[in-house]
Amino acid sequence: MLKVKIVRLNKQAFLPVYATRHAAGMDVSACLEAPVVVAPGSAELIATGLAIELPEGYEAQLRPRSGLALRNLISLPNSPATIDADYRGEVKVILVNHGRDPFKVSHGDRIAQMVVARVEQVSFVEVDTLGDTERGEGGFGHTGMGQG
Questions:
Q1: Which one-letter DSSP state was computed for residue 49?
Q2: Which structural domain range is residue 78 located in?
Q3: How high is the pLDDT of residue 148?
Q4: pLDDT value for 141
Q5: Is 139 marked as binding a ligand?
Q6: 84 is in an annotated binding site
Q7: Per-block average pLDDT, block size 10, for the chain (148 residues)?
Q8: Which of 7, 21, 64, 140 could form a disulfide with 75 if both were Cys (CB 3.0 to 4.6 A apart)?
Q9: Domain count, the chain
Q10: What is the CATH number of the domain that holds 79?
Q11: How many angstroms separate the Cα of 86 from the Cα of each of 52, 53, 59?
């Protein structure tokens, strides 16, 4: 298992945890002095009280929690949010409220999932043409919505 260094910037911060044995993402919790209300149609930056040191060649992705999305229409507008290996500041989560009701975030609430993944930097090679494929330039729904 990959070891990632983590610092509690606030002693009240909760470490990310896997909710189940085979979970891909760890639950990330809010670290707040007072509740934050995310008004309908708005976004708020939520502190976690944590900083991480990822190994070179890795990123951490912050993703919405499915239960918050389904029940409250709460999501992350930049999902997946990327935390680069060279970032050393506090991990914060942008929550957006797509619902009609205000959403209150309290200290300790699980607000996002974190997935740590290997990444590779690439270099582009400029060419005059690209190879042909069956799909070609088809995109954005070109295969339709019909049954499988």
A1: S
A2: 5-118
A3: 65
A4: 72
A5: no
A6: yes
A7: 96 97 97 98 98 98 96 96 98 98 98 97 96 83 70
A8: 64
A9: 1
A10: 2.70.40.10
A11: 9, 7, 9
